[in-house]
Design goal:
The protein is of the alpha/beta class. It has one domain. The chain contains 9 helices and 12 strands. The strands form 4 sheets. It has a 6-stranded parallel sheet with strand order 9-8-1-2-7-12, with helices on both faces. It has a two-stranded antiparallel ribbon with strand order 3-4. A two-stranded antiparallel sheet has the order 5-6. Helix 1 links the parallel strand 1 and strand 2. The C terminus is likely disordered.
């Protein structure tokens, strides 16, 4: 069973979605500390001059867990995000096919950043055809910090393989610590696959929100991701300035893991996944649900 884990992110980038798709169970780390100026409440999309950030404004999140962070409802962020998506993707081939679902998400008067991001995953994953099971770390009751807790989460859901971003190995945990627990560590080996984008004169821009992929490629989106062999990253396209751990963007700097929980840099996503089976209505499972499941890949 392949498991991955990562903090909640708003309208997550393609890299995280790729890791979720390659997992049987993805553990949503909703009870780790919020990282200021990270990607837990913002994401990049493409526009006529390059990239822009869609940011969910939050209220004094210092020292808070992601699940406790409150959204600043006194701003017009939802209307701004809807307008930005319409302006920059209105002519994309599949924007119309998914607009209603995305608008429905933005129509809700969100107060919790965590709940907003969880709902977004519940919209995006089915649209992509991904049936990976999602579990919340806050529901698993696994104590500890750092590698100790990460191993505990893997054991709690019956992982035999932990899928990780390349940067995390050696920077946030030692893979050898997993072996005594019967868990193999496997690297994602990520390089963003090229796909059709808007504003082609700018060239291909990697690691944007998965909405960029979905609006442009629609039903082919998952196929585009899965054509790459796990752990065998394709060579970057000509002119694509991308390092081993993510795009050459000045904002792509390592996150500070204040709770020391095996956290990759903002362009890495730690995931955990269990079985690809139909989920309950909200797409999330308790530990008991996993114990009842039967995995088939």
């Amino acid at each position: 069973m392949i498991v991955a884990a990562h903090q909640l992110h708003y309208l997550p980038w393609v890299r995280l979605i790729d890791k979720i798709a390659r997992s049987d169970v993805f553990i949503v780390l909703d009870d780790v500390q919020f990282t200021k100026n990270g990607y837990q409440n913002r994401v990049k999309i493409k526009h006529a001059q390059g990239t822009m950030l869609l940011t969910v404004p939050v209220l004094d999140p210092t020292g808070q867990r992601i699940c406790d962070v409150r959204i600043n409802a006194g701003t017009r962020w939802r209307a701004k995000h809807r307008a930005a998506l319409a302006t920059n993707y209105g002519r994309a081939p599949f924007y119309g096919a998914y607009r209603e679902a995305v608008d429905a998400m933005l129509d809700r008067p969100w107060e919790s950043l965590g709940e907003c991001s969880l709902y977004a995953l519940g919209v995006l994953l089915p649209a992509l055809g991904i049936r990976t099971r999602l579990m919340r770390s806050s529901e698993l009751g696994v104590p500890g910090k750092g590698t100790e807790r990460l191993i505990g989460l893997c054991k709690a859901v019956g992982a035999t393989t932990y899928l990780t971003g390349d940067f995390a190995v050696g920077h946030h945990f030692d893979p050898e610590n997993f072996a005594p627990h019967g868990v193999e560590v496997r690297r994602q080996g990520w390089v963003c696959p090229e796909y059709r984008q808007q504003y082609p004169s700018l060239g291909f821009l990697p690691d944007l929100s998965v909405l960029d992929l979905l609006f442009n490629e629609g039903p082919r989106s998952l196929e585009i991701l899965m054509t790459r062999e796990l752990g065998q990253a394709p060579a970057p396209a000509a002119g694509e300035a991308q390092g081993a751990d993510g795009p050459a963007d000045p904002r792509s700097v390592p996150e500070r893991a204040s709770d020391a929980l095996a956290r990759p840099n903002p362009d890495e996503r730690e995931d955990s996944s269990v079985c690809r089976a139909a989920a309950r209505g909200d797409g999330f499972y308790t530990e008991a649900k996993v114990a009842e499941s039967r995995c088939s890949r």
